[in-house]
Amino acid sequence: MKSGTTSLYHYVRAHPQVFMPNEKELAFFCDEPIWARGIEWYRAQFEGARPEHLARGEATPDYTKYPGKPGVPARIAAELGRVKLIYIVRHPIERMVSQYFHFFAKGEQTRPLDEALLSSWQSLAISSYAMQLEQYLEHFDRDDILIITSEDLKEKRQATLARVFRHIGVTAEWTSAEIHMEHLRRKRLTRPTMKRLHSIPAYRRLIGAIPSSFKLAAKRRFDIVDKPIGRGVQLRPTTRKELEERLRPDIVRLQKYMDPSFDGWGLI
Q: Is the separation of the CB atoms in 92 and 132 below 8 Å?
C-alpha cells in the first residue's frame, strides 16, 4: 500500500500481452465477503482476456497486510497453484507517512502524525517487508516472486518494467507513452474533513505555501491529491529514529531477498 501499485497496475495493464480487469483491486483472497462469492466469481473477472494475453493478473495491496489480513498466500496457492507474484516496496517510513495522509484525507485518521505512526502496529506491519514476504515463501518458490522498489520504478522505470515483463512472461522490450505517466489516486475531502484540516496549525502553514491557483481549485472541487496534503509535513527526529529502530531488524532480513545493490534505504 502507498508504494506505487496504482502506477504499476496501469503500466502493466497497458502491455498488449497482459490482461488486467478494469477494477484494480479485486481483493478476492483477503476480503471475506468477496471470498465468499467463490472462485468462479474470481475467474469471471478475467473473461475479457483474449488468446494474445499471455499474462492475466490483478493488483491488490491488501494481500500484503499480514497479520491484519491472514491466510492470503495459502488461499492463492490453494486456488491458483503456481503463479508469478510481484511485490513493490518503498522506503518504509515514507510509506507509513503516505498511508497516514491517505487515511487522514478520508477522515479515518484524526491523531497527529507522530502519535499515529508510533502507535499503529498495522502501519508498521505493512512496512515490515521481510515479514510480509516470508508469509509467501511458505507457499511459493523464491523465483516466482519479483521484488521491485518504488524508487526504481520512478527513477529507472523502463529497466524496472522490463524486469516485470520478463518475470510474467511477456515481451520485455515493449514500451509506450503510458509508462511515462505517474498515476495518483485522488481523494475527495468532505467539508467536515476540510474544517478539521484547517484547525491544525501545521496544515494552515502548509496551505499558506501552496499556490493560490491550486487552493482555488481545491476549494471549488474539494478534490485533492494526497501528495500535496502531506508535502512539507515532517516527522519529529525522535519519531523517525524510533521507527528506524523498530524497522531495522526487518530490513536486515529483507536484504537477503534483494539484489546485492540494495542499500536498505540507508537505514541499516
A: no
Q: Which of 155, 151, 167, 159 is nearest to 264 (CA)?
A: 151
Q: What angle do CA 180, 184, 186 make, to 5 degrees?
A: 150
Domain assignment of residue 208, given as a range: 186-230
Q: Judge if pTM exceeds 0.90.
A: no
Predicted confidence (pLDDT) at residue 72 exceeds the cutoff of 60: yes
Render 182-241 in DSSP notation, one character per residue.
----EEEPPHHHHHHHHTSHHHHHHHHTS-HHHHHHHHHH-EEEHHHHHTT----HHHHH
Provide the domain count of the chain. 2
Is residue 64, in this structure, part of any structural domain at all? yes
| Spatial contact of 64 and 25, defined as CB atoms under 8 Å apart | no
CA dist., res. 59 & res. 183, Å (int): 14
Beta strand 186-188 with 223-225: parallel, antiparallel or unpaired?
antiparallel
Question: Is it the case that residue 227 has pLDDT exceeding 60?
Answer: no
> Does 244 fall in a domain?
no
Which grid cell is 199? 484547525
- Determine the pLDDT at residue 141: 98
Whether residue 216 lies inside any domain: the answer is yes
Mean pLDDT of 147-155: 97
Give the percent of the chain with pLDDT over 90: 78
Lowest mean pLDDT segment, chosen from 147-156, 174-183, 196-205: 196-205
